[in-house]
Amino acid sequence: MPARNAAATIGAAVYSTLRALPDDGLLIVRDDGSTDGTADVLRRIRDRRLSVLVGDPIGIARSANALLDAVDTPFMCRMDADDICLPWRFRAQRSVLDSADLAFSPWLRWRSGTALVKPAMTRRLDGDVARLELLVENPFLHSSMIGRTGSIRAIGAYRDVASEDYDLWLRAATAGLRLRRSGPPVVLYRRHPRQTSQQSAWLAQRSASTLVLDAWSVLAKQLLGIVPGWFTWRRDGFPANAVPPDVSADIARMRATVLDASGSGAAEVLACLRRMERRAGSAATSSTQ
Fold it and tell me: For the chain, which residues make up each domain, given as ranges?
């Protein structure tokens, strides 16, 4: 669990994880140079299964790698400092790695300060279909991940990019690792204005780096034989003035590949493709008016 200025949420994140953790489990938290009361909250938690690393601020990806270096077990899970772990998480995920290298679960979306909770990504997803869905969206929640430690290290662990989780999934899929999402929701995913992905610096870093696009392109070429032009268009929210050329042909090729692919979850991928088609169609209609 990497943490940076998470004093308002890390107590609930740690306590909920320890509540779900087996007696022989270990929760390792890295305080990434916090300047609020994060360290004070962690010091007040007394549990032999909690280990706290403290260091200078190095960012989420490097903190995640520092935590990975501290893991000495064959399996590891990820948890975020602003989410809540549900009590059955580790019991539900224990047997999943018999058929996967990286496994994920559905989650519950929760907007902080409200009582509104909404299930997300509840369908099973695996096989080549899971790899294909990565070309149209990120279908995996980082804080629901359980994986083989050696597999994550073998593909180079995290790279220092925005969307470091998505970048890892893309490289894992290209390397042939088995990705799977199944089971009940295991995490309460907190939505709030202080989230890293809501910050302008993170958005600027995401746009500046081409590493994720490169990883996406390699996977697309491997699965489709082509590199569709929709990566930036989709990432930027489908702007009407930036519809890529040949998007209809690219979507048709992807649809045919999905229908012929092994694994569960094709309906989810096809729904994404239909949304892209509607966006492209709406843009075309607007341009002729």
Answer: 207-287
